[in-house]
């Protein structure tokens, strides 16, 4: 099924309200499709059978079930459904389809298909938002008997599959392949950064070039062909619909284009199994990326007038030819004109896995409502795909040639092609070919004085201009907040609230002294509510108000008298609101065991796929035989989990999309003083102001597994809710699918001075994430965080803990409670952090392998004693003792959770107290 007419029929073959009344759903689907000028939807039967083959194969004949619950696809969670008036629902939905039909009247099939894929759900919600059942719209199940995947996932998969049902012979003819495409390198490329904007643009480039390949594929096969990531509401895809297909995209905001959310790889179902067609597609995708890079190169040549610099142009092309590395693999679903069989996969996959599916195939043939088909072995096809890409990546594509000469200031790998140097250009001009001096040709933002850049790193600095021309004006004068801007964000917020006159006076004084656009920047997003543009945070630190700094950063001279005036005005501001913190935090979150989720290893037991009433009524022999097959998957754990299906894959993809687009940005940029670099589904990278660090960490982890809710005060902020075990979150009037309560995530966090070189921070945060992922507690790995404090002096402190422990112990809640006790503004009093250093001094000789050689009881007695001496406040006598005892008990809980690791415990306290002291620089 390669044409959009057939895809449109498949996308509409089931009504979205199917679950409310199964017996009449076929007729309703036809009526709804007619309203959209689509007929013969029954021709998609072959694709429908394959898309739902697993669920239908593993149900005995004749099972019926009313719509009573929605099961979470990745956990044991569920939502019960109350009473509803189905006839009223059908009437309302029919009317909504009539309204939508008027909008797409006379559209061609391709445009209509893309439009309905993107807008149908939103249009239905818009037409029916007053209905009490509408909150379930995004998660309405495709089957009431096995309600663990939504109708939307089913429709996507059905429209992606190329199949034909031969009614006469009762045979499905299909022609499909699983296709995986990936680009890189990822970590090494994005970490080659001297400033935050380098890092951001590196992330954006990988996301953008992956999108370029995706755009080529979906323009040919449609957006539903991509199984991972979920393209629904991805900003770059929305831009493609709007600009290329001229579709009015609901709720499209151009500023959302600034956030890279597409990961560097995608998995698709493509409607061919012919080797030559697959290779042709892969070449087209690769060439689309190479052509895009060629356009960037040509723009650089024009802007810098390099037409006469042939040798430099050649070397620029050489540097860009290395990027990106592209890999692809495909697993055809047909071998020699026959459907791929278990026998075909025996030499490729583990024997135990093959045995499971042999057992399941026989079970489905004997017991299933419908005979098994290619859809039943989807998990094996995906396993083969992942194994193939690992093998492919081990084959080197090329050997990088070494260059002799001065190396790039950013990557340190390739020779300098472009530089800026006012005083001593000869140090760069010794290279061959002679690099181009860009002094007075480009801004200091593009290349700083003394910097030399290779071709690829120069593209990073130039890429925003290309995006402005090719994508949107939102990229014009793109300014990613600097580390200093992040560090002083809360200071600026307080200044604008409590000392607006002094704040504006200080900015005005800078304008009087300098006429330099680089002084002004966009603040962190949440601060834009108060100010659109602001003086760069770097200049709110008195240490930077000196002659050499102005000459370095702005290439201008300034008198000591003018510097004194600036300091005087800044002093008036800081006297009123306090000093800005010099430290900020970098967060790197990564979903745990995502490979196992995507391969199906972590799915819940098979019984949780079924409606609970259906499972109870199934014959005992049926259930026992079914479980027996699944237990072969993991003999050690006696696991009878679900197996992976296209619908489950689509559910994972939807959950990760919801996390990235619906929760991450809201938490970091709307609710707190942070700036998101990227959110690719299961991975997040962000810069955060210290004031909001603990809350951002807490919410990001909880939201990943769906443990959040709308705040009780009725505001739009999210709150952590570990009691939500459903896996669904009600947000903006709709239930959203998340990875669910069984999903886990680890996080690395680095707290550093804003002047610490960014490359060091990026290395440290990656290392911190690895430490978190390797943390064990009672033989359980991952689901942890690691905090690293790097003081300006170079001293480092590292602590690591699990997010949660037994009996509902929430580490971040305890951490925030401990932090309050270091707050000098605490009305009950506070504890000086000198007790931490005293503990270190006293126990330094009593350590063995990071643990103390005294009992926990003895340690607690000494901890209580030093706390009493460290208390500052109005409490006396028994009140002081009780207050100190309570804090001691709280600290001992942490001491127990770090398994009495004294060094880990002390570092935890020092980091928490340090963050509190930095926040306290700003006046209350």
How much helix, percentage-wise, in residues?
A: 40-55%
Find the CATH superfamily of the largest domain: Reverse transcriptase/Diguanylate cyclase domain
Number of helices: 33
Q: What is the strand arrangement across the widest sheet?
A: 17-18-16-23-26-27
Instruction: Summarize the main sheet.
Output: 6 strands, mixed
Strand content: 5-15%
The structural domain count equals: 6
Mean pLDDT: 90
Known CATH architecture of the largest domain? 2-Layer Sandwich
**CATH class assignment of the largest domain:** Alpha Beta
Principal-axes shape call? globular
Determine the N-to-C terminus distance: 65 Å
The total count of strands amounts to: 33
Query: Radius of gyration, rounded?
Result: 30 Å
CATH topology category name of the largest domain: Alpha-Beta Plaits
- Give start-end ranges of low-pLDDT stretches: none
Structural summary, described in words:
- Strands 17-18-16-23-26-27 form a 6-stranded mixed sheet, with helices on both faces.
- The chain contains 33 helices and 33 strands.
- A hairpin with a 3-residue loop joins strand 17 (674-679) and strand 18.
- It has 6 domains: 4-169, no CATH class; 175-341, CRISPR-Cas system, Cmr2 subunit, D1 domain, cysteine cluster (Alpha-Beta Plaits, 2-Layer Sandwich), CATH 3.30.70; 418-475, no CATH class; 489-580; 581-604 and 642-802, Alpha-Beta Plaits (2-Layer Sandwich); 822-924, no CATH class.
- The protein is globular.
- It starts with a helix and ends in a 5-residue tail after the last helix.
- Helix 9 (196-221) crosses helix 17.
- The mean pLDDT is 90.
- The longest helix has 30 residues, at 275-304.
- Helix content is 46%, strand content 14%.
- It is of the alpha+beta class and 924 residues long.
